[in-house]
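Regression check, pyridoxal-5'-phosphate case 380:
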Amino acid sequence: MTYSGRDPILLTPGPLTTSLATKAAMLRDWGSWDASFNAVTARVRARLTAVVNGEGTHVCVPMQGSGTFSVEAAVNTLVPRAGGHLLVLINGAYGKRLARLTEMMGRKLSVFETAEDVPTTAADVARKLDADPSITHVALIHCETSTGILNPLPEIAEAVAQRGRRLIIDAMSSFGAIPIDAKAVPFDALIAASGKCIEGPPGMGFVFARKSVLEQCAGNSSSLSLDLYDQWAYMEKTTQWRYTPPTHVVVALDAALEQYLAAGGQPARLARYTANCETLIAGMKEMGFRPFLDARIQAPIIVTFHAPADPRYAFKAFYDKVRDKGFILYPGKLTQLETFRVGCIGAIGPYEMRHAVNAVRDALADLGIRQIAPATVKAA
Ligand SMILES: *Cc1c(COP(=O)(O)O)cnc(C)c1O
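Current build output:
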């Protein structure tokens, strides 16, 4: 507990720090059959669809569970059991997770992997698709949250569409902040969740599915609860969720969307996160920290930093010290290098980021850590 007794600020990419209005929306109980709740579900679906300019082409299908449940539901429903073949583009842990769930669902899988600091390119995708005409679908992680790298979605989407293949996008950590236009970037499914850039609480995901494609997907699913077609068809018929909805999460997401729109929507969200990211990186560099990624491929969502070279550094003690000062950091997710991550998303601004940088500086002093620059990395 910090001295003030306040909750620490979450510098993690979901769950993240939510506004008081979003938290307050959860102080009511709702009946899942009640028309008032189903009106909230309908409004949330419509507002989410508008964020990607998907009206008329795509439908928003919400799904209970964390984001991965929706990714699994999308693959399971859109990639046919017979004849389906999914190429997963990997440069981090979320790409690996998508490949694993595809395999576990019994779908034919190919992977293309680049290093964690190298974006997949449209040329890579074109080459893979030209070499294997049996590939029917491609899956891309837009912002790979395990490092914070941004993959070039518009170019890759064009390469996939030109070859008549279908695209599934895990846009979990980019949706709402990085612009995505369903009318300009062709995709069959784009997946995101409540507890990321829209700044709701965690607990539900949603898939924007191309309506003409989803209509053909009855019977594809090899899972009862993760059948996106059935979830959609039931909701269209009854206005209700197929199984118990996360009612508090839905109404809080509605409140978060209200604030999102009032604040200026996607451009405003991107501007705030960019300011957060720049404030963070400038402050950390001043102390001697080095970001893992080149600035030109860094999304303003989460930043991976090399751990200090100082032998006194250990993540756990550093984490605890920073937490005592009111900020929750995120461990690194790289296998070869010692790193840690700092999220730039949530109901926070550059003011909080400056305080976070100060908390890091004080924590290093408390721990007697002086050699910050990683020994193996050239000064940027
Ligand atoms: C958060 C996230 C997910 C979903 O992870 P959960 O732990 O299931 O919420 C999937 N992909 C990406 C890129 C993410 O950032």
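Comparison notes: The domain at 22-262 is CATH 3.40.640.10 (Aspartate Aminotransferase; domain 2). The CA atoms of residues 126 and 170 lie 19 Å apart. No diff flagged against the previous build.
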